[in-house]
Structure formats: C-alpha cells, structure tokens
Design goal:
By secondary structure, the protein is mainly α. The chain is built from three helices and no strands. It is rod-shaped and about 85 Å long. It starts with 21 loop residues before the first helix and ends with a helix.
C-alpha cells in the first residue's frame, strides 16, 4: 500500500508557477510583425492571474471548512452539556429556539466568508481581463 503524502495542517502551502521559456521555443518560428515575447508574457500573466484566483478560492474554502468544523464541535459540546442538565426537559422550547437562532447566525457567517473569498478571486480575474482589454486596445492603435 502506498503511503499518502499530506501537507501538515499547520504549514501554509506555497504555490509556484512551473517555468518553461516558450520564447526560446517560438524563436524558431518567427513570423513577421508578431512579437512572440510579448505574446508569451501576456499569456503568462493570464495564467498567473488564474492561478492566484484559484489559490484565493481554495484558501477561502479551506477557511470555510475549518470554521464549519469549529461550529460543529462547539454545537455538539453545548448540546451535550444542555442534555446532561436535569432541568433540560423543562426548557426544551427555549433551547431549541436558542439553537435555531445560533444556527442561523453561523449560516450567515459562513455565507459571508464564502462571498468574500469568491469576490476576491473574481477581482483578480477581472483585473487581468481589464489589462487584456487595454492591451488589445493599444494594439489597435498601432502602439
């Protein structure tokens, strides 16, 4: 059986783009009026932006799952503590109402975490799209 390698929970993962110099490869295929170096640089920026957006989304979902786990632990501890109380039967409606209100608050917190993460990742992609649009506009002007 193969041993699985898993990152340690306390270590932040470091992401790097693999490097391959496409400009050297494309030098063999020169086309008049086409700057392959600029083309490769533009695509490299696009890939870097997508990688960054994916990293942000991944880290956001990691945080979300971590918080969900914390909420579950807290809720279970509280539920067990309440169930052990002798007068729990007399206050079931109150406990149910408190639990429901707390669950709604947690759901809102988790939704806000997810929205922040998605917004941040989306902004990275939008910024790169805007840069590409400006680049193509400048090509049309003959710059």
């Amino acid at each position: 059986m193969e041993k699985e390698l898993k990152p340690k929970a306390d270590k932040k993962q470091h992401w790097e783009m693999p490097y391959f110099d496409f400009t050297k490869l494309l030098e063999n295929y020169k086309i008049p009026g086409v700057d392959f170096s600029a083309l490769v640089d533009r695509e490299k920026k696009n890939i870097e932006a997508l990688t960054k957006a994916n990293m942000i989304a991944f880290e956001g979902w990691q945080a979300l799952v971590g918080r969900q786990t914390e909420i579950l632990r807290e809720t279970m501890k509280e539920t067990i503590a309440i169930a052990r109380k002798q007068d729990a039967a007399n206050h079931r409606v109150d406990y149910a109402k408190q639990g429901f209100e707390k669950a709604l608050g947690h759901m809102q917190e988790l939704a806000e975490m997810a929205a922040r993460s998605q917004k941040e990742a989306f902004e990275v992609v939008c910024k790169q799209v805007d840069e590409n649009i400006e680049h193509f506009k400048s090509l049309g002007k003959g710059n």
